[in-house]
Specification:
462 residues, alpha+beta, FAD/NAD(P)-binding domain, Alpha-Beta Plaits, eight-stranded mixed sheet, 13 helices, 22 strands, 22% strand, globular, FAD-bd, FAD/NAD-bd_sf, signal
């Protein structure tokens, strides 16, 4: 019986899954339908690839564990990525007011282009001789309802062929055909759900003005509770002395694709700081739009008779509104679950696939609750309306966020949960509940918490 593993998709989730498998399988074949770039370049199979991405602290910690013998943090920083502190290096306007910047740094995140991150991870994982990336498209699963035994592969310019595997991991993204494939094996009853705000992302890359290369990540968040379309803006410092500027608008408030409209939209946000900073910056790209922003979920962990030999991770399992920056971190946490479960018996261990699927559902649950819990409040959202439970949770979340604008204890709890460094239980600790009860201990800030030099840059640019 083969101890080969096959991973469908060579994106971030796929390469992390391959890394997790590399110490347990004799061979890991990663199937990828796209031609992969040789450097940090965009590829068409990644619909959100041109837009802002952050790797949260929880995802970085998982990634460090998953990729054997390599510090991904050091690799990313050496390639030009930025390491930012949520407490010190972020200027953020929330629905409850401006966050302060504290001397305590808080959890850190990695900021860079998605193309750079994917490339660095791919190079690190593919350096293992047990991992082979092969051009090909999975068109079906082999086996039956009890066990998946491989995949059917279509290769360009060649006949289809069968590829046997002791374990198949589907990381083929939001377009995964896994539910259809399972149906062909006799596995049915998969529950799926979609919550769609109609969000449109518009992104343009700029050269950071001289002296502003390390300007803090600047975010004007959308307000889900204002009974109007959400509108947001973000400046993310990335490699090469550049800013990636992403604007977002839910159904009825979408950003435009023309350069003049892009700037007007940024200036018309609830605070004009993003627009003022980019007004005099040099644009390096056109404006790119994306509508691949829905929350989609497949509840595979609830399938009664889950087959041996099949695991589904990353966007193939769940996708989230990208405004919340959770997707890459959830993918890394899923790969960590896979690695830990493999340590107990290898790729053909009895019950492995079900244990991984259930374990991967836990970070998905947390991210889904956070994303959908806000998205249900936007007018025009399809797939969900706020119920009594949503109102209770939202009331607590708003009080926590309001407290975090002027209470370090509340801010620390919020950082831990939003960075996926801790689960929702972190919010129920007595110290957190007391901070929420006390509310903000400092008065609200009248504007963004900038240093004197940062304020000078804003005034000069605007």
């Amino acid at each position: 019986m083969t101890r080969r593993a096959v991973v469908i998709g060579a994106g971030l989730a796929g390469m992390l899954a391959a890394a997790a498998l590399s110490t347990s399988a004799d061979e890991v074949i990663v199937l990828e339908r796209d031609e992969l770039p040789e450097g940090p370049a965009h590829r068409k199979g990644l619909p959100q690839g041109r837009h802002s991405h952050v790797l949260m602290a929880g995802g970085l910690a998982a990634m460090e564990e998953v990729v054997p013998g390599v510090s991904m943090r050091k690799q990313l920083l050496a390639a030009g990525a930025h390491e930012l502190s949520l407490g010190r290096d972020m200027v953020a306007l929330t629905s409850e007011g401006w966050f302060r910047r504290w001397q305590d740094e808080g959890p850190r995140l990695i900021a860079c282009s998605r193309a750079l991150l994917d490339w660095v991870v791919r190079v690190a994982v593919a350096a293992d001789p047990r991992v082979v990336i092969r051009r090909g498209r999975a068109v079906g699963l082999l086996g039956d309802a009890g066990r998946v035994s491989g995949v059917r592969v279509a290769a360009e310019g060649a006949d289809e062929y069968d590829l046997a595997a002791g374990l198949v991991v589907d990381t083929s993204g939001r377009g995964s055909r896994v539910v259809h494939w399972l149906g062909g094996l006799g596995v049915t009853g998969v529950r799926e759900r979609t919550v769609d705000t109609g969000l449109v992302n518009a992104t343009r890359v700029y050269r950071a003005p001289e002296g502003a290369e390390r300007f803090p990540m600047t975010v004007v968040q959308a307000d889900p509770y204002a009974s109007r379309p959400g509108r947001s803006g973000m400046i993310l410092p990335i490699e090469g002395g550049r800013w990636m500027v992403s604007l977002g608008g839910t159904r009825g408030g979408e950003p435009p694709a023309d350069p003049e409209g892009f700037l007007r939209y940024a200036l018309d946000l609830p605070h004009p700081v993003v627009g003022r900073l980019i007004a005099a910056a040099e644009p390096l790209t056109d404006v790119h739009l994306s509508r691949s922003t829905r929350n989609d979920r497949r509840y595979l962990e609830k399938v009664r008779d889950w087959p041996e030999g099949l695991v589904v991770l990353g966007d193939a399992l769940a996708t989230f509104n990208p405004a919340y920056g959770q997707g890459m971190t959830v993918a890394a946490l899923g790969a960590r679950v896979l690695r830990r479960e493999l340590a107990g018996g290898g790729v053909r261990a009895v019950g492995l696939a079900r244990r991984v699927q259930r374990g991967a559902a836990r970070p998905v649950d947390a991210a889904w609750a956070a994303a959908v819990g806000q998205d249900v409040w936007y007018p025009g959202t399809r797939g969900a309306r706020p119920g009594l439970g949503d109102r209770v949770v939202t009331g607590f979340a708003r009080r926590l966020t309001r407290a975090a604008t002027g209470s370090h204890g509340a801010a620390a709890a919020l950082w831990d949960v939003t960075s996926l460094s801790a689960g929702p239980a972190r919010l129920l600790r007595p110290t957190t509940l007391l901070a929420v009860l006390n509310g903000p201990l400092l008065p609200p800030l009248p504007g963004p918490p900038l240093t004197r030099e940062e304020r000078r840059l804003v005034d000069t640019a605007g």
